[in-house]
Amino acid sequence: MDTVLTHLTTLLTTKFDVPAERAVPTATLADLELDSLAAVELYVTLQDHWGVPMDDSEATPDRTVEEVARSVTTLLGRQQSTAGPEAIQ
58: how many CB neighbours lie within 10 A of its CB? Predict the structure, then answer.
């Protein structure tokens, strides 16, 4: 999850102009002042980057940075387990 969390934090600071000191795992999307449109854009960006199907209906203001990162990590794990051994190299 560390790689996903690091990428998410970088994304928040660069694309969404969140000050680095505020982009902490316990911060909610509301704490970071992401409105609903920005939260959905965050999910779409993560989906595009990681190639996993993010459910943008989960992009709610009460989600923490850590919860978002955990969701991506879980989806990545599912993707690897269904890809089969030939896809993992």
Answer: 13
What are 28's strand-pairing partners?
Answer: 64
pLDDT tens digits, 41-54: 999 999 999 999 99
Q: How far is CA 13 from CA 20, 21, 27, 43, in A?
A: 6, 9, 13, 15
Residue whose pair of structure tokens reads 């387990």 in the numeric block: 81
CA angle 28, 5, 13 (to 5 degrees): 65
Q: Is the pLDDT of residue 85 over 60?
A: no
pLDDT at 7 over 90: yes
pTM of the complete model = 0.86
Q: What is the DSSP code (8-state) at residue 43?
A: H
> With contact defined as beta carbons under 8 Å apart, do 27 and 63 qualify?
no
